[in-house]
Design goal:
The chain is α+β, with helices and mostly antiparallel strands. It has two domains: about 180 residues, GAF domain (Beta-Lactamase, 2-Layer Sandwich), CATH 3.30.450; about 230 residues, Phosphatase 2c, domain 1. The protein contains eleven helices and 17 strands. A hairpin with a 4-residue loop joins strand 8 and strand 9. Helix 3 runs antiparallel to helix 6 and helix 7 packs across helix 8. The protein is elongated, with a radius of gyration of 35 Å.
Amino acid sequence: MIHQHIDECFNCPILIETSNRLDFFQSITSEVMAKKPLTDLLNEIIETSKSLLTAEAASLLFYDSKLNELVFETAVSPESVHLQTHSIPLGVGIAGWVAKEKKSLVIDDCYKDDRFNPAIDKASGFKTKNMICSPMLRKNELVGVIQVMNKIGGGSFSETDIGFLEGLSLSCAVAIENARLVDVELKNYHVSLELETAHQIQQLIMPKSLPQYNDIDVSVELIAAKELGGDYFNLIKLSDEETLFFLADVSGKSISASLIVSYLYSFSQTYLILNKKFNLVDFVEALNKFLVFSTTSDKFATAWAAVFNHRTKVLESINAGHNPPLCLREDKFIELSKGGLLLGAVETNYSSELLQILPGDKIIFYTDGVTEAMNNEDEEFGEERFYEFLISMKSNSSAEITKSLIDKLTRYRKSTEQSDDITCGIFQLI
């Protein structure tokens, strides 16, 4: 008799169904908790909710803490496409009540419940008969709500259904938070990959080495603050007699600044190909016009362009809103400030000035990352320290000066992060 009762118990349809659903619940919970993109996870949660509770439809709403609203993220029903633009304030409707109270709810006849909002049915065309709704909580913080509608077969949702949905909701809340982290990781990875690609491209357009000269000693150091910099320089031999010096400091940082740097490089190369005879004023005015029409108003660059004539030792200089390059002559500085406005702001004319380079003169060109380098006390390195340093190094080679300057700025900053690109170049007669 006892064995008969045991057999009857084990063969009980309710027990068998519960056991089967429990096995199914365990398998889908493991599947939901697997690491995957958020979009895939959400679709899986909805399909799983329908299957687990044998229902016609299901929907998932995320909680937007800024708006204090529930937003339809995904839904599975023939009319679900109409729900994507709907949101529900906390406390409104069945889902709003569940979200506010953080309690599950079973409704046998939705249209007889005062909390039910028929507006969603009207918008979607779906007829909600009965419903089970559960909050997704993570450490008692609301993540969202899962709704399952219309029990297949015309029956009502049971207490067992509530238990299964609450268990699934708990797992889903954890899985969603994990999936969000995965999405962030993927986005960061792709951004990192794009930055690395852009960095490699930028390295290709920077001079790998400087031209060699018999009559001048030249050195340039560029230390970018980030992977992508806004400083750009180039030295180009125009002919046996002339060399173009070009230095620019683009507004902003990272990808937007590096894009303008690529513009500067591309324009310079194209200009040199199209113009057999180089004219400094025409070059700067054409470059300015190109940037005005090819960039937005908030993108601009300060620049210095100069042509050195190796035969006459004359330097023709144009300063486009840049830190004035310096000519250190004995212990005094001559500023090269003539030129015009910064590049890319408005169409304008530029003028040049001529400087006869004498033996012992040092021409120093740099970006504001040198003088504006900050230390732990938020004090800038400043022009005075810079000028004193240059005078103290007046007997050294160009390479010794630029390398010593970078070392000095590094020591000055101490533990303070470099906030801007640093470029400094020196040339002098041999």
